Amino acid sequence: PTLLLIILMMVLFKSTFAVTTPGTFAAALSAIDRAFGGLFFIFIGIGITAWLNMARIARGMALSLREKEFVEAARATGNTNLQIMLKHMLPNLIGPCIVRVTLAIPRYITFEAFLSFIGLGVNPPTPSWGMLISEGYQAMRSYPHLAIYPGLALAITMMAFNFLGDGLRDALDPRMK
User: Fold this and answer.
1) Which listed residue, 35, 64, 153, 168, has the most CB atoms within 10 A of its CB?
2) pLDDT tens digits for range 124-144
3) Any long-range contacts for 102-108 (C-beta under 8 Å, 24+ apart)?
């Protein structure tokens, strides 16, 4: 459902902000999108859907940390709620959140590549692996390397971020120790 929602948002953004009156908010957003080569609306679409999962995960971890003994000990020593959140809970939350974001990056790279592959992604002068794969797909019979090399680069990048996320999880996640 996330990819479908992003596709719908991209269609809405591209159609709504295609023709704008100069000096309006829509014209400003359209100019920003053109300046970023079409990536601005992709970032907005992915950001709107991505923060929900991160917020749910962070809230669940915060609720479980709130019941831990070190929070009760901090409360018993007279720390305020703000001190407990900043000194005790935040350091325990930040590591798993960084790991989750790092493990989610390959999914967002795939979303961008897919949007560019179907023509809803970046504008043509801006390079994108999805666009390169799409252009290579058109000439697949004659020049298969035009699709294979961008596909391999995309796969290697996604694997690298997965390995980075696994390494960070091993280093930062307190449940893994």
Assistant:
1) 168
2) 878 889 999 998 998 888 998
3) 102/161, 102/164, 102/165, 102/168, 103/161, 103/162, 103/165, 103/166, 103/169, 104/50, 104/53, 104/54, 105/161, 105/165, 106/157, 106/158, 106/159, 106/161, 106/162, 108/46, 108/50
